[in-house]
Amino acid sequence: MKARSPLIAAVLLVCALSTACSQWRYDLGTPLTAIDLPQQNMLLAQALDLLGPPQRMSATDSGFVLAWEHWHIREDSIGLSLGALGADFLSADWGEMRVKGEFLLLTFDRQHLVTSATRSHWDNYGGGGKAIQPFLGFVSVVDAGDLIGPLPQHKWGSSLLQQLPDTLNMVSNPGSGQSGLQQRGTPTAIGQQSLEMD
Amino acid sequence: MKKTALSIALVLCVSLLGACAQFDSKRGVEVNWQTEVTDKLTKGESTRANVLALLGPPSQVIALDGETALYYLFEQSKGDGLILIVYNRMRIDTRYDRAIFFFNEHDVLTEYSTRIYQSDEG
Question: Is the torsion defined by CA of A84, A88, A93, A99 positive or negative?
Fold first, then answer.
């Protein structure tokens, strides 16, 4: 019995130090589910009363477009590393992300009347992965970075002070409010931001 | 025996070693669009100069083919977390206080809307 106690303690110590579980929860904006979709020809004033100020906005050729959004992101990961025991040669990680949200888009003509209204809901697997990495952890198995960034309005004042490719492409940037808008997580490698070479 | 007690104490220490974290992040313009401020504005009468004088520079100015829109945004994130080494949990809530004002080609206010998020703490 005496000989087994240190062994049990050591096993418990290994369990305590080698495994960890992390959960991240992001909630951006307020839910839109309870709000009815505005009808065509509704006045801008009525739409704003119903939904409040939009989170995204842009001019269009025939008027303008307003958008409201709500995102809930759930990121879970679990990792096993022997580093704490002085054997930092191997780590095993598993992680996954679920993305839930709503997006409501209204287009208006120059008379401030709704010309179209659409909304989408989603509750999807947002990616994840598994990794066994020796010595150093090179790869993050879950990445929510492109979904949790600040709204583009914050950057408007410094839009012409970005790196040269971004500045040269400013007329096509959806954050400018002049050339359309885009949802969080839209890939930038193709489309009107491809020249920014991010 | 002494070694065993020490080992068990060490395991307990590590198991119980925990931390909590709390943070908040604020970015954007000063929230000056409370009802008592916007009550001073009248659709069809107030001008862009009146709005700028009351609220200051906006986050964004949007040109709308003769019209303009001023957009004000204040973004606030609050996070709290539990760090127990073997189990860690973080929760981050982001809310947007915002206001939008539309002006016609004569710089007269045509529409506006404001929203200030009421936190759970009241």
Answer: positive
